[in-house]
Input
Amino acid sequence: MKWLLRYSFLLVIAACIVFFSFWNPVFLSAGNQMNILEGSAILLIVALGMTLVVAMGGIDLSVGIALDFGAAFAVVALKEYDAAWYVAILAGIVGGCLIGLLNAVLIVWLNVSAFMATLGTFFIGSSVQRIFTNGGGPISHRRMPQEYRDLAVGDFGGVPTEVLIAGFVLILYFIFLERSILGKRIHAIGLQPTAALIAGVEVKKIIFASFIIAGATCAIGGLIASANIRMFTPLSGFSYLLDAIAAVFIGASMHPRGRPNVMGTLVGVLFLGILANGLNLMGLNFNTKDALSGVILVLALAFAIGQRRLTSLRKGQT
Amino acid sequence: MIAIQFVRKLLEWVPVAVFALMFIFLGIEAPTLFTPFTIDLMLKQAVPTVVVSLGLAVVIITGGDDVVSGGIDLSIPAAAIIAAAIIADQVTNHGTALPIALAFALLAAITVGALNAFLVVMIRMTPLLATLASSVAVVGITKMITQSKRINVTDPFIVFLRDGTVIGLSAGVVAAGLLTLIYWFLMHQTRWGMQAQATGGGREAADISGISTKRYQAISFLLAAFTGFLASMFVLARGSGSSPGTEENLLLEMVLATFLGAAFSPRRKVTVWGAALGAVLVAMLSVGFKSIGVNVFWTGCIKGALILIVVASAAATTRGRY
Output
């Protein structure tokens, strides 16, 4: 029974799948399944970065900025400096690291809370993009090297590269956060920073590094996005912020102790992917779709967290 | 040790000094900035932000000032714009009388507050997550109402809020000032306010001493949603109607203003008058920078840097957390 309650969110997902496939049988086709995975790849990568930060007891409102900087650095390297594709990828990741570094300096050295620090980074990062692009116009680069373009449109044995990249990042994060000593320490910091410090965990160093890793991870999402549309669109990363936070918390609600975790985040991301795809196939008006997906998101979060509370009540905890 | 204490004392004055220097600089660059006319203009610009900041201050005072686990309400601007959209849609597109349109709008805003209260108090969702999610849903529904179009409003009452004067001051400014007084009195002078502060200061202690903390937190979200409803009228007045995308800027200014206010208070606590003062200062800076010809793309950068300077200097005066 307890087991059933904890995983009841999976039943909600199943109900969504049944509903959408009755509405439009195309939903179940293999091609559409791949569409869902492809559509979820970037969000999964961003949400994994967010999982790391939330597991550590923080929050990162600047994931979108790190994504934008990843895309911008890579596209500018390709366009202005004629860089090779792998140099461009490296440049993009450095761009994301810079955002992570700014957050880390503010949080660890200057003692600013994660919310305020990443909010400040968000302001500054958005403004820098506007200044750089003279108001927010996209930087397009039509003659992109094929290797870079393949990040988004290539495939490997029939599986799209972006899905492979997201899968690879997922496995790395799973080993790093759920199976390594360092991962245990990160969870310890999230639960009890003072206890972790007393137990000899190098709290400051780990927090510092984690924000940089999260920034670099989000930049990978930016690389894929820019390769897909062959341009850098300023401020486009913002749309991933709420979905990433929602995915992390849906995932946390499925953990026995309510902790953010990698596999839970994957389930959260897939739920959001299924929802977006299914609503698209229903052919609704753009504004109606926005309203509906917002309402469903609130309901899903309320359900995910509400059932978790019920589970812990049964165990006699509050 | 004495040197460190001295440095801490100095740091306490950094937020005030930063703002003082900024205004001196603006005053020298643009001498017309501090004439009564421009000051009135700047205050008028600040009105919607002042009103929603009062609501955020109430939620933070009652919920505690830890941003992730304490109280925060990011959905007040969303409540304001859905109320504004309903008023505009009813009055302009359906010819409804203003009082009835206002009643619909009030109902919508209070529903948003009740939803937040339900999610936070009953479901025990983190306020940050709950209000972020409800804000997305509300913005989505607003788009459905307005079909992402601008709706003009020419109702005499709204126009009065924009252009009218009371005892020589703009009507909107007077209304916002009165509202600040009311919220200040409620939160800082009454028994109810003291118990709300106790709830925010230490939830368990308040619970043990017999305060119904759940009720206080639920009411704080309703009071916040109510400021959202009030702000909707000023949003309509400022923009002469409802336009899509107003909520983002309002959200950023609200958070900035409320936490700036905390940095100005002696104990670094969020207070009602601090939030109102913060909102006025933020609006004055926006207008000030515009009037000396700073590129508008830089405003985000300046605001971001400001918030970080103020918050970092506030953090430096307290002991490190790790």
About this structure: Chain A touches chain B through 50 residues (CB under 8 Å). Chain A has one domain: 2-314. Chain A is about 75% helix and 5% strand. Residues 286-314 of chain A form the longest helix (29 residues).
